[in-house]
Amino acid sequence: MATGNRRRSAVTILYDVPFKAYVRIALTPENRHLRMAYHDGTLEIVSPKLRKHERPSDRLRIIITAVADWLALPYDGTGSYTYRRAGEGRYRGMGKEPDQSFYFANTGRVPRDRDPDLDAGDPPPDLWIEVDNRVSSAGRLPIYAALGVPEVWRYRSKRKTLQFLRLVENSYEPIDRSLSLPALSPAIVLEALGLGDDAPESEWVRLLRDWIALTIPRPPAGA
Predict the structure, then answer these.
(1) Residues forming a β-bridge with 37
(2) Which structural domains are found in the chain, ordered by start?
(3) What are the phi and psi torsion angles at 22 (to 5°)?
(4) Which of 97, 131, 156, 208 is most deeply buried (CB count within 10 A of its CB)?
(5) 186: closest CA among 214, 161, 204, 209?
């Protein structure tokens, strides 16, 4: 299946993997705990995530849903569901699961009776979250672009930096405000993440709700 492979700490990279073989590997129940990224024959497998990765991922999800609820914006969260798009040829195709993902503009197009399928015409998530800990997501941006994800947030957990990106043609460019949640900028989200940084999540959520009420203006009634 693969003519070569390379291992980098907790990351295994396999080459010359057919797209259908990648899908079989990804759908094998024993592999559900692994993270995978597929790009035209190259399969990257990452061992299970660590707590220091999961914590910012969970808190970014809570910030997004809390702000959307405060602004009464409809949304659907699809978590780390794997999105794939087959290409032409045995080794062509893309596949990746985000750390978190959300539908906003396309909430009404999310299928209710089955999983989203990009090859069937379903839209990708409007907002895709990546938390970089052991592996940088910079090299995976072409995958997100090929999947058609309009907005990506990249949080670097070691440096505690956040970048918002939007899809322009086939690549991403930085933006100062979120497309899905224009009330949010990278600086505002970083401020929210830093509230009670050492506090238990329950206390941090209470701080977050108070902070949102003071920081994020609600639109006028009926707007």
Answers:
(1) 44, 96
(2) 50-215 (3.90.1570)
(3) -60, -45
(4) 131
(5) 161
Q: Considering only CA atoms, which of 39, 25, 16 is closest in space to residue 143?
A: 39
Q: How many helices (H) and strands (E) does the chain have?
A: 5, 12
Mean pLDDT per block of 10 residues along the chain (223 residues) reads: 51 95 94 92 82 80 98 95 95 96 95 92 97 84 96 94 96 98 98 89 95 91 63
**What proportions of the chain, in percent to the nearest 5, are helix, strand and coil?**
30, 25, 40
Q: For CA atoms 153, 36, 86, 89, give the dihedral sign.
A: positive
State the residue for tokens 């995976």.
140
Joined together, the tokens standing for residue 174 give 């930085």
Q: In whole angstroms, give the CA distance from residue 147 to residue 149.
A: 6
Residues with Cβ < 8 Å from 10, sequence gap 6 or more? Answer: 46, 47, 134
DSSP state of 34: S
Q: What is the pLDDT of residue 50?
A: 58
- Give the DSSP H/E element, type plus range, for residue 64: helix 51-70
Where is 193: in which H helix or E strand?
helix 186-193
